[in-house]
Amino acid sequence: MPTVQDALPVTSAVTSFALPLRPTTRLAKPYHYRRNGIYYLRLRETGSLTRTVSVSLKTTDRKAAMDASRHLAETIKAFHLDHPEATWHQLREHLIWVAEGLLSSAHDVHSLRMWGDLYEGVGMNLTEIAATMPLSVDQHEHVANAKRVMVAAQDRLQGDSVPLVKMIRELEGKPENTSVRVSNASASLSVSGTAMTFEVLSGLYLADRAGEQKATTLSSTKFTHGVLCAALGPLDLRTHSRADLVALRDQLVTTRKPSTVNQMLMKLSAVLNWAVENGHLEKSFDKKLKFTKGLESSRKALTQDQIAKLMHYANNLPETSWKRWLLSLGIITGGRLNEISQLTTGDIHTLASGITAVHINEAGEGKSIKNKRSERTVPLTDGAYGFDLAAFMRYVEACKFSGSDLLAQIGYRPAGEWANQQAIPAALGDSYERGLVYHSLRHSLASLMQAKGVPTTHAQAVMGHASGTITFDTYGSGVPVETLAKVLEELFRP
Predict the structure, then answer these.
(1) Residues 218-233: what's their mean pLDDT?
(2) Domain presence at residue 410
(3) Is residue 412 part of a domain?
(4) Per-residue pLDDT tens for 429-475?
(5) Among residues 191, 209, 226, which one ends one of the domains?
């Protein structure tokens, strides 16, 4: 095992130029988390979920934890560059060994002196690098500058506590961009380097949290992040203000509905709060940023007469056509378009009581629901608006006989285009108006339940909402559908 001196990191002045050898084992961005108040650093091999190692930073103070984390990260980086052929096992063992040595004592050491100790003996390493690697004239000058920095650092740390980065910038002729806060007990070094833009934070956030999101949610998140990246541009979020985020909100709402902007702001907050928790930002100013007015949905509910017309239109389609059942199931269950479009033959159940119901779930390849509460079982009411349950069950059996598990004959997007642009306008004729779409069936059912006094818990079970207030507050404005078999029978009774 090498000594600490052999594995010490070098400054960005040395590591920034191109090296002839690239490490064969790639490491992902370090991840920080807390357990029982103690901060931990986790490192993993890129692309692997099993090759991970976590070390305790042995402190409950975030500043001290981030300082120790940078300390470890630079050390493992230097070792990695010195040993580009190192395996994951070797890198893991080296990190554990270094952590045990550097973090064995309490964090009461002056941080600048810690950094000074780190660079003891680096001059020899720099000389070895210059002697063994084919460097250009500029790169040799870079090494020489770095050596002068190390000597200056060691000299100054014997007396005054001067930030190392400040000395590097002075010797390289670059403007100082360093913030230092010193107390009697400890000192914290904060270096402002590359701007922490939303694009950078988005990359870090997705690298850590993408695996926790469903494919459809992740796709939406990436799209929203792209819009936010373009809107925020080069803004360094380490120095952002409340005014910056208010300006962002006002910019977004010029071409979007307030409800849509609120959804985007939720994703912004998720990234900013994660960044604060993981030490990338000091503070976020996203609280109470969302709109509270103008959130009424532009989607409209269908009247009872319009629902009857739509079911009549569906019943005139062939029994073997999925389009017929796409409309019919939407009318009597209030299911979302994607929920109905992904139904399989196994999702249709006939219970011991004789009730036939549809089970909306995400069990199966490619299936997805909005959230955990969206999984539900909704009874199918025979005769509702003329719905023919026997004909539907024949369709299900025909799908099984053909060897297909899916009930849908067309995909989600084509189904939506057909329903919204062709079927609904054609079925409603002169009573059709802009804003009546497939999702209006869902509004209509919720509105009908509200009008008929259906208990909130029953309505919540049918609609698959996480809270009963959403069912009535968001969807209540019109007429049609749902609860348990008896409630639905009463609801749909002419």
Answers:
(1) 90
(2) yes
(3) yes
(4) 999 998 899 999 999 999 999 899 888 888 888 888 655 444 544 44
(5) 191
Contact criterion met (CB below 8 Å) for 327 and 406:
no
pLDDT per residue as tens digits for the range 160-185: 334 444 444 444 444 444 333 333 33
Same domain, 77 and 216: no
The predicted model scores a pTM of 0.49
Domain that holds residue 243: 198-277
**Predicted confidence (pLDDT) per residue in 267-309, tens digit:** 999 999 999 998 889 899 999 888 887 665 556 789 999 999 9
For residue 297, tell me if it sits in a domain: no
441 occurs within a structural domain:
yes
209 and 119 fall within a common domain: no
CB contact set of 97 (below 8 Å; sequence gap of 6+)? 1
- Position 367, amino acid: K
Task: Examine the domain organization and report whether 177 and 235 are in the same domain.
Answer: no
Q: Is there a single domain that holds both residue 123 and residue 215?
A: no
Decide: 252 and 231 in contact? Cβ < 8 Å: yes
Q: Quick one: 343 and 465 in the same domain? A: yes
